[in-house]
Amino acid sequence: MTPVFDGHNDALLRLSKVQGDPVAVFRDGGPGHVDVPKARKGGLIGGFFALYSPTPNLPLDFKLFDTAPYDIPLPPALSRDEAAVPVAAQVAIAQALENEGLLRFIRQADEVDPAFDADTMAAVLHLEGAECIGPEGEGLDELFEAGLRSLGPVWSRPTAFAHGVPFRFPSDGDTGPGLTPEGRALIRACRDRQMVVDCSHMTLKGFHDVGEEGVALVATHSNACAVSNGARNLTDDQLRAVGQSGGMVGLNYATMFLRPDGGRDPHGALDHAVAHLAHMVEHAGEDHVGLGSDFDGAPMPAGLDSAADLPNLVALMEQAGFGQALISRICADNWRAFLKRTLA
């Protein structure tokens, strides 16, 4: 079975909402895309585990993606106090999972190989949307001490640091302004701590602003506009910039970001995954493409209902003529190499 290290999941958010003990749910399995039994069945050896603050009383209705074109308004900005509560709860769950030996968090470069090669799932703690950090960087050091090693300045809501793209199809990411002065300072703070900076959800202008700050360009869960022309996906120029900077782009399995029609229909959506991967490899380079599922945060294609079904995606790569060396790079080796050269 081909090992898979995944660039993005929302398992901590899901676990924060379960009834009962989240550690037991993750250990024993149940509803959701990522847990220990599903990971073992599908070959998932780890991934980026996101901390995310949902918009209160405004859940995203995925039915909005049923018919394209669409342009779904951005949620309102979230206050720091509103964002801090769910993030703190998810950090506590992450620490409990580590204490129980169910996750092994990577905090520095020399921990990458031991974590990837262990029986326990390897994990990078990631912040998706930096609303819980103050405009002068307040709170970043505390999260870093808790194990945070990857940060995306925005989800889709505007923050003090940058602007996110709307759910818009057809469209590229040229939908608004880039980094604010506070955003540039935050990127430099992450750079100084040798953290990963994730440009997923960021506007085209913001993406290039991040590159100007001298960090590797990373989109942990984004696809190719050339295959599915949605605002969350990357243009060919962006993909080339990812490779030139030594960064990474991870294939997002969400149906509406895979399908050329931008729709939510799960049937046949997985068939387009290889087209995205091939295009991303062509433009970013075979050393700069990985997987970034968005498990537990988005509707999945038929045939890839959870981490247990990852061999189905590997089989599609094999059928498309991807050699084993390239499949291994995409599935885990590229993320491994990137983390080793990026973290302190």
Description:
Helix content is 37%, strand content 14%. With 344 residues, the chain is of the alpha/beta class. The strands form three sheets. Strands 1, 2, 4, 5, 6 and 8 form a six-stranded parallel β-sheet that branches. Helix 6 links the parallel strand 5 and strand 6 (148-152). The chain is globular and about 50 Å long. The chain starts with a strand and ends with a helix.
Beginning-to-end CA distance, first to last residue = 31 Å
CATH top level label: Alpha Beta
H-E order: EHHHEEHEHEHEEHEHEHEHHEHH
Beta strand count: 11
Proportion in β-strands? 5-15%
CATH topology: TIM Barrel
**CATH homologous superfamily caption:** Metal-dependent hydrolases
SS-based structural class?
A: alpha/beta
Query: What is the overall pLDDT average?
Result: 97
| Helix coverage percent | 25-40%
Instruction: Please give the radius of gyration in angstroms.
Output: 18 Å
Q: From the coordinates shown, what is the CATH architecture?
A: Alpha-Beta Barrel
Q: Report the major sheet.
A: 6 strands, parallel
Q: pLDDT under 50 segments (min length 5)?
A: none
Shape, please?
globular
Counting DSSP H or I runs of 4 or more residues, the number of helices is 13
